[in-house]
Every structure is written in structure tokens, then in C-alpha cells.
Specification:
Belongs to the short-chain dehydrogenases/reductases (SDR) family. By secondary structure, the chain is of the alpha/beta class. It has 6 helices and 7 strands; from the N terminus they run E-H-E-H-E-H-E-H-E-H-E-H-E. The chain is globular, with a radius of gyration of 17 Å.
Length: 244
């Protein structure tokens, strides 16, 4: 399989870092991004700081960050074959307590970050007549929890799901494939030592591991015939839950 150039946003920790490592281990070139330069440099070194790795710090909600990611990828590796829009935040607050600043936090990072980074990268994919964009969503978009008041975060992810389908329609004839991976609860630093407390929210009665997501991202990235899909990698969380 030919070596490709992969751009991963939100790659300083958790799922993003795991995805970057997975592609590096498979022999691809990777450009990693994070808002925090300090955290990004630490991850850069942890991933080996090799010739097949580059980094760009910046806020993905600013289109200039996407343009810098494109520039870094082209200057060092000559192409951008896969964009993984992983950067995102999640929090909960009751609907009636959500103000504009709180809502904008999620719209800026989750939705605008995905939108504008993709907008910066797709022209290069059009020139190449090939490319893959993989967004990170959530099965909660179509599976509500009454005890989880997270309308701001989930609505922003819902916008990503809608964007995925429409972009797949707009760019399918140009051989650009757009998909979303929707993880269940994954064992990451964000959940600390409490991840396993959520096992029962999944039909498999366990939480996922970072490589569960990285494997699917890799599979979709290398496929030539998957587009417009929202793919749950969630242990059955989107389908139901265990009551016992």
C-alpha cells in the first residue's frame, strides 16, 4: 500500500495521538496538530520526532491553521491524502443554562474547526483528484440520554454529521471521500480512571480502546469505496444499552 500523508487535528493526546501513532506505525507520513504548542512538542517527541512526522500548533477554528497544516504537509511530504478532523471538546450543561459564550465554545472548536480545516485542505485534494476526509462524531447525535444535558456539544457534533453527508455529495465525482467515525466511550485520559463505570452504556458491556478507533479510521482512510457514511465504533452504544 502506497505511503500517504495524513493530517490529524487534536493529536496531542487521546484518540488523536493514537490515530497518529497508528498511521506512523503503518509507514505513512503524519502531520499532527494541537492548540497547545507545549503538549504538541511533547507528543512529537513521544512519537519519535522522525522524518515522517511534522507538527503545526494552532486553533482549528481559524482557517489559517488549516492553511498552515496544508503548507507543512506539502513542503515536507508533497501531498495531503487524508485529513482526520479529530479536534473536539465535550461537556454538559442543562439546556436552560446555556448562554451564547458556552454554545460558541462547541460551535467554534467542533463544527467550525472541522468546517474550516476541511475547506483549507480540499483544494489540494481536488488537484490530486483523490482524497479522504474523516470526521469524528458521536452516536449521541441519534441516541439521546435524558440524564446527560449536553445539547451544546451534541448539536455541534450533529452539524458535523450533516456536513459529512453533504460534502460527500458535493465532492464524490471528484473522487474525494468524506466519512464520520462515531466512537463510544473510549479509554482516554479525558475519562481518567472512571471510563469503566460507563461500560453498561454499551451492548458489549465494556468501553472501547483507542486502537478500536484508530483501526477503523485507518480502514476507512485506505478504502476507495466508502463515502457519505456515519460509522459507529461504539460497542453498540448507539443501538441500546445494558440494564443489568
Amino acid at each position: 500500500m502506497k505511503k500517504q500523508t495524513i493530517v490529524v487535528t487534536g493529536a496531542a493526546s487521546g484518540i488523536g495521538k493514537g490515530i497518529a501513532k497508528y498511521f506512523l506505525d503503518k509507514g505513512d507520513n503524519v502531520v499532527i496538530n494541537s492548540l497547545s504548542l507545549e503538549a504538541l512538542e511533547e507528543t512529537f517527541n513521544e512519537l519519535g520526532a522522525g522524518d515522517n512526522l511534522a507538527m503545526v500548533a494552532g486553533d482549528v477554528s481559524d482557517k489559517q491553521t488549516g492553511e498552515q497544516l496544508l503548507k507543512a504537509a506539502i513542503e515536507k511530504f508533497g501531498s495531503v491524502d487524508v485529513l482526520i478532523n479529530n479536534a473536539g471538546i465535550f461537556d454538559s450543561r442543562p439546556f436552560l443554562e446555556v448562554d451564547e459564550d458556552y454554545l460558541n465554545k462547541f460551535l467554534n472548536t467542533n463544527f467550525k474547526g472541522t468546517y474550516f480545516t476541511t475547506q483549507a485542505i480540499i483544494p489540494q485534494m481536488l488537484d490530486q483528484k483523490d482524497g479522504v476526509v474523516i470526521n469524528i462524531g458521536t452516536p449521541l447525535v441519534t441516541h439521546g440520554f435524558g440524564g446527560l444535558p449536553a445539547t451544546a456539544a451534541i448539536s455541534s457534533k450533529g452539524a458535523i454529521h450533516a456536513l459529512t453527508v453533504q460534502l460527500a455529495a458535493e465532492f464524490g465525482k471528484q473522487n474525494i471521500r468524506i466519512n464520520t467515525i462515531a466512537p463510544g466511550i473510549i479509554r482516554t485520559p479525558m475519562h481518567g480512571d472512571n471510563a469503566d463505570q460507563s461500560a453498561g452504556l454499551h451492548l458489549l458491556n465494556r468501553v472501547g480502546e483507542i486502537d478500536d478507533i484508530a483501526e477503523m479510521v485507518y480502514t476507512v482512510a485506505k478504502s476507495n469505496f466508502i463515502t457519505g457514511s456515519i460509522i459507529n465504533v461504539d460497542g453498540g452504544k448507539g443501538a441500546g444499552r445494558n440494564l443489568s
